[in-house]
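## Example record

The block below lists the input lines for one assembly entry, exactly as stored, with component labels intact.
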Amino acid sequence: MPADRSAPLLDVRDLCIGFPARGGMVPIVDHVSFTMPEAGILGLVGESGSGKSVTAMAIMGLIDAPGVRVSGSVRFRGRELIGLPPRQMRRLRGRDIAMIFQDPMTAFTPVYTIGWQIDEQIRAHERVTRAQARARTVRILGEMGVPDPERVARRYPHQLSGGLRQRAMIAMALSCNPTLLIADEPTTALDVTVQAQILDLIRSLRGMHGSSVLLITHDMGVVAQTCDSTLVLYSGRVAETGPTARVFDRPGHPYTAALLDSIPPLYGPRPDRLPAISGTPPTPMDRPAGCAFGPRCAHVHAACTTTPPALVPLGPDHAAACVLPAEGTPLPPRILRASNDTCP
Amino acid sequence: MTATPPAPTALLAVRNLSKTYHVGHGQHLTAVDGISLSVMPGEMLGLVGESGCGKSTLGRCMLRLTDISAGQVMFEGRDITTLPERHLRPLRPRMQMVFQDSSACLNPRRRVRDLLAEPLRVHPGPDGRRRPGADIDRRVHDLMDLVGLSATALARYPHEFSGGQRQRINIARALALSPRLIVADEPVSALDVSVQAQIVNLFADLQARLGLTYVFVAHDLAVVRQVSNRVAVMYLGTIVEIGPTDSVLHHPVHPYTAALTAAVPRPVVGARPPPPLGGDIPSPVNRPAGCRFHTRCPYAQDRCRVDEPVLRPIRPGHEAACHFPLAPS
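Predicted structure tokens for the full assembly:
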């Protein structure tokens, strides 16, 4: 089937993922929709349990637990991925859509060398000789900033540092030149100076390979410095989506605003107390009937408690699932506070 | 003639403290390498650095939770370096620890009430006798109040709580015996951002109410800034820079501190990050000679490869171990 070039790279519509529990279906991901343009970096942010990793697994067709129900639509260049036969999905996975994980130690098998594993992926998708595959492996490792790539290719995963392992995993993901790279918390297990190197690498991918990146993270700092656009998930639903600068300066959802406010500032005046969000996110089983953030929201009122609010457009590509803008009382901009936290 | 006031005694002081582990094949890993520092009563000291820098080991050595290879630990002016456990035990109520993994610290088969009462049952009361049950019960209720948990939670088990609430229970248990010193090892790094702020505020509130002294071990510089008035930056087992929090974090003079603060991704759009520091942290088993940071330092010179720098004063209360400290920005 020829790919439709006019369609967005990735178009997710009403994605719902339900897990069986307590004799019913628990909606872990609840009507999530978003699109990704070509050569863009989209940040998928949320706290643990918000459904961000499960969303990525569903896009990759990697959910095969018994009884799980995945519904909605995931179109990759116009081609529907939900319900795609495993054989066809396998051909796509690794070649057109690749994924990297938080822990490169468990993503690589410990019994083969790094080079062997990257060669295998190339040879699974393309008809090349072993020597050709190895040459490409070494070249990509080098492009990922791995020093002495020929030697590293002959090493086992446990012989490399965390930063090098993550670079090797990104090299493996990029070995077949995928159009879309899904990175699930790629820097969470790394130290901050090594994280800076990997984020630098991810930012440069689109220039180097023209790849789009779906970056899953819980760190608003990583999003601000890496992503063109941002999608905030809360309890399995989209809270807000928009261009990153817009979302950070003028958040439309009280959750986004409160989350940004609760991050301690590294620069500027030090507040006596952090504006913390009270309580904890609901589990998918006890999600309230109305807005999932309602019980923790400073602006909660009667209109929030009946049905989950729909996404309301707030500007170009910017929307928030909140009743406040529609009621004519949108949140004030955050621009002033944000500028306090820049390096002197 | 007026008498000079007695010099204030540090609550905790370590002198040339080292901790070495044998890692097999005749090799040694020096996790902490000759560190000296003191913590004054009421002070909040942040220990920061990347993984493997020895910050957690230093925290544990301070409380004698691991044996010390060389050097000295003084608590309330008393040398506890080689004190036998039997004599250390009466001091334990005054020094407590809070760990990162809130569930691993709590026995899953005991209710919160018993978890909080245990230290009160184990250690005698101020009169040297066993505490009466009614006193323990009152204290347990006060502790729950102190950390913002409702008394109805006392009958529940640890797994019934969220990560943030479990960390509150751990803090309550550390406070049970009214300690003077709390060493907290990454107490908020396993928590989600929205919950992390609650626990950071709790640490600040408790310090203000109880006059506690903290040693706060963490890798998140912004969190450390919020709870510390002094910060020590560690790299491969030594302190490379120490001083008042904002002096160190905003005007670092050691190139490593500067790289560390610059590498923190800030939630600010448009602030393009500087070029990242190259290379990886060298193995603590096979440390570089000279300055430990010279393999990654953009300003390293010949002297740095042979001559190990020691901490020297830069500004009041601010010291750094560098031959070529950065000019104040």
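DSSP finds twelve helices and twelve strands in chain A. The first strand of chain A starts at residue 10 and ends at 21.
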